[in-house]
Amino acid sequence: MILRRVYKSALATRDGRARCKELMTKMLRLSPQSVMNGPSAQCEERLQDGAEILNSTVEALKDGQVVAVPTDTIYGLACLAQNSNAIKKVYDIKGRKGQKPLAICVGEIKDIYKYCKVSVKEELIGELLPGPVTLVLERAEVLNTDLNPFTPLVGVRIPDHAFMRRLCQMCGEPLALTSANISSHSSTVAIHEFQDLWPRLAVVVDGGPIGDKSRLGSTVVDLSVLGKYRIIRPGCAFSSTVDVLEHKYGLSEDTGDQ
């Protein structure tokens, strides 16, 4: 089903409202706390406090569903990383081949040590996370074996985004996270850019436009080799990430040379 853009400023068009009512998808809009005007309820979208949105999103995730969420870089699709059926749904929604890995998203640095084997200093991790960086580390045995079964590594994120961090904390386990788009299509920084996916999602959390400057996504860096780093994707924080790795912690780039 082709959907029109739902939002025009703060209001939806009449046709957009009718289409929303046809969907099972919950459209939940985050509102800055500074907004004092009363909410205007329309279809399944309305200005809501963060707690209500968090509760609805956690409920959907624990029910094995896939949700769309804002991050500090782009919009993402998320499910519980320990739920194998939910992971399959993510691949199906994106039209993605199973050989392309999903990252995990956690709420606190201490959570990384539960699901990854870490060989770098915790201070280094604290320099990069929370932030627009994905760290690729050796996975721990406790992580779902159906998540990226083709590799001993896993990318881990802690977005610099209060909603996402709290969502992970409330779930009590990592989220599997990937970009909210069809595989090979451009990443998205506003919910209307992936509106064709809405009917296949349980919840769409609208955090507003994120901005084109972050459309490159997070910088992905492999830290699985002791004393080395390898940039897998430059992303939107390339220079600052390399500066931390090389100049502050003395890591050298892994060029693959023997």
TrEMBL record:
Catalytic activity of the protein: L-threonine + hydrogencarbonate + ATP = L-threonylcarbamoyladenylate + diphosphate + H2O
Membrane topology: Peripheral membrane protein
Enzyme class name: transferase
Main location group: membrane
Family matches, as SUPFAM superfamilies: YrdC/RibB
PROSITE patterns: YRDC
InterPro entries for the chain: DHBP_synth_RibB-like_a/b_dom (IPR017945), Sua5-like_dom (IPR006070), TC-AMP_synthase_SUA5 (IPR050156)
A GO CC annotation given for this chain: mitochondrion
Role played: Cytoplasmic and mitochondrial threonylcarbamoyl-AMP synthase required for the formation of a threonylcarbamoyl group on adenosine at position 37 (t(6)A37) in tRNAs that read codons beginning with adenine. Catalyzes the conversion of L-threonine, HCO(3)(-)/CO(2) and ATP to give threonylcarbamoyl-AMP (TC-AMP) as the acyladenylate intermediate, with the release of diphosphate. Participates in t(6)A37 formation in cytoplasmic and mitochondrial tRNAs. May regulate the activity of some transporters.
Annotated family: Belongs to the SUA5 family.
Name listed for the protein in its UniProt record: Threonylcarbamoyl-AMP synthase
Organism: Oncorhynchus mykiss (Rainbow trout)
